[in-house]
Design goal:
alpha/beta, Nucleotidyltransferase, domain 5, globular
């Protein structure tokens, strides 16, 4: 928004370019106008400050979208006509749906093709070949707001209803990994999900660290999350990598408790009991995990367009937290 190729500094006239002070998160224009920068992942920053206008970029991917938006609006009380301009991919989270239904909202849509003059031809060619005609392409290329996929195991309503803004007291924390055995632009992602079990017996999804990195890269990323959340164990699927998965993890940190899990059933069969936990209100997302939730809400028993790496890691993690007891699956699974 500030320093990028199309950011405020780049597009301003030379004689009216603002002074940017990153340490203060502050922009100051020659005429005395001031803009402050805030993070959608830290809603409490917006408690107290007041403004007469705001630019909210990608609110559909903020970790705490509703809380951050509410705090922003509470402080938008200066001037004769305070307003917000929001620029975002139209992910169908509750905040975006509510804004689109608000009669005070003015909607302007723009597709990737409207921006051709500013895009590299190779980028446009690749995006068109890969995503044109797909559901994801309708959202990302054509700015359509897509509702839930018919027959998907997860519904956004369930995720939204039981979402929470804060991590409660946890009795156990696990890191679930669905490893990719190759890296590169066209490789599958390695799913890395961190979740904990609360004192109430419910599960809380804490972080999505999924990535497209080398084995050493994803192992370091997972172990960093393990230590940051003071986790109890790493659980990783070994159907493809076998002992290699453990060797990669042990190379980074030999002391990490580790348990391999092996899939004997299809992805949908493994996922159905976990999806049922969401319907029962026993799983809560601590904040928003846009990419994970998009993947969950596109996952059907019949097929899935792509490898559901994040979902697989989530399923392994929550199965271990809530559906196993002393290493044996409960009868509901």
């Amino acid at each position: 928004m500030i320093e990028g190729d199309s950011g405020l500094l780049a597009i301003s006239r030379p004689d009216f370019r603002p002074l940017y002070e990153p340490s203060k998160r502050c922009l100051t224009w020659p005429n005395g106008a001031i803009a402050m920068a805030y993070s959608g992942d830290e809603p409490d920053q917006l408690r107290g400050p007041q403004h007469d206008a705001a630019w909210a970029d990608e609110p559909a991917k903020w970790k705490y979208p509703q809380e951050a938006w509410d705090n922003l609006e509470f402080g938008l009380r200066l001037g004769a006509h305070p307003r917000i301009v929001a620029t975002t991919t139209p992910r169908p989270i509750k905040l975006i749906r509510d804004l689109l239904q608000d009669p005070m909202t003015v909607v302007t849509r723009g597709s990737t093709y409207d921006n051709i003059a500013n895009l590299a031809p190779s980028f446009l060619d690749r995006m068109t070949r890969r995503y044109e005609g797909t559901r994801l392409g309708r959202q990302e290329l054509h700015a359509e707001l897509l509702e839930d996929v018919p027959g998907a195991l997860w519904q956004r309503q369930h995720i939204e209803t039981y979402r929470v803004p804060r991590i409660p007291e946890l009795s156990r924390v696990l890191v679930g990994i669905d490893p990719a055995m190759s890296s590169g632009e066209n490789a599958n992602e390695t799913g890395i999900i961190i979740a904990g079990k609360g004192q109430d017996g419910h599960a809380y999804v804490l972080e999505d660290l999924s990535c497209r990195l080398s084995p050493d890269g994803w192992a370091r990323r997972a172990i960093s999350g393990y230590h940051r959340h003071r986790a109890d164990r790493i659980v990783a699927e070994v159907n493809n990598g076998g002992d290699l998965v453990e060797r990669v993890i042990r190379t980074v940190d030999r002391s990490v408790p580790y348990r391999p899990v092996r899939a004997s059933r299809g992805k949908a069969i493994r996922a159905e009991p976990v999806a049922a936990l969401y319907e029962q209100g026993r799983v809560h997302h601590v904040g928003l995990f846009a990419d994970l939730e998009d993947q969950m809400c596109a996952f059907t028993p019949d097929q899935y367009g792509g490898s559901p790496d994040r979902v697989d890691a989530l399923v392994w993690c929550l199965t271990e937290l809530l559906l196993t007891q002393q290493g044996r699956l409960l009868g509901t699974f």
